[in-house]
Design goal:
By secondary structure, the chain is mainly α. The chain is 70% helix and 0% strand. The radius of gyration is 20 Å and the shape is elongated.
Length: 214
């Protein structure tokens, strides 16, 4: 008698990750219920049971990517240096992209132009951006950066980290050590460019300096 399959959280996560890998490797046309079930060692009925249909699966993949990013942000300690905390968000964004490259395009590149995202998905995605806006606002309030609209600054910084992540995931930033150096260069240069003349200064340590202090 065959062993009953359990449609549990572990299977749900496995399907989301395998769906992302299939999408990243072969494109939207390859992401079928049958192919996904085979890769996850389950049945097509499990996919339907857990996600309802293919759009439901895609929305769940989108949500999972942003929930993982939100957890990365939530794990960051708040220090007394708002500029350093802002740069830490950039590093966390990079870490999440490297840990979940298979979900990155679905989160930020819209490989399914017709995908209808519902309120829940949009709210969770926006919540991660609001973490960045709040960090920028704190820098403004504490005199770290020159007066500006916090959302304008946050969008500029998002463009920076999204661009860097996209380049690194495609192998265009060099080996991991070189990529990290280039990330640090970009993040610190962006912050210094925003800093208020005569205001509170912050100089986040470079990777090798942080390692030396450990």
């Amino acid at each position: 008698m065959p062993r009953p399959r359990t449609h549990d959280e572990a299977l749900r996560i496995r399907l989301l990750d395998e769906g992302g890998r299939l999408l990243a490797a072969e494109g939207p046309a390859a992401l079928t219920t049958r192919r996904l079930a085979e890769r996850a060692d389950t049945s097509s009925s499990a996919v339907y049971s857990l996600f309802g249909d293919k759009p439901g699966l895609l929305r769940a993949m989108f949500l999972e990517g942003f929930r993982r990013l939100a957890r990365r942000f939530a794990e960051l300690p708040r220090t007394d240096d708002p500029g350093a905390d802002l740069i830490a968000l950039g590093r966390a964004f990079r870490a999440n992209a490297l840990a979940n490259p298979h979900l990155y395009d679905l989160m930020f590149r819209s490989p399914f132009p017709g995908l209808d995202l519902l309120g829940e998905e949009c709210e969770e995605a926006l919540a991660t951006f609001q973490v960045l806006v709040s960090a920028v606002r704190r820098c403004l309030e504490e005199g770290v950066i020159a007066p500006a609209d916090p959302e304008d600054v946050a969008r500029m910084l998002f463009g920076l980290v999204d661009g860097l992540a996209g380049l690194e995931l495609r192998g265009w930033l060099g080996d991991p050590a070189t990529a990290e150096r280039r990330w640090e260069l970009a993040l610190t240069a962006a912050l210094r460019g925003l800093q208020r003349p005569g205001g509170r200064r912050t100089a986040p340590a470079a990777p090798e300096e942080r390692a030396g202090d450990a």
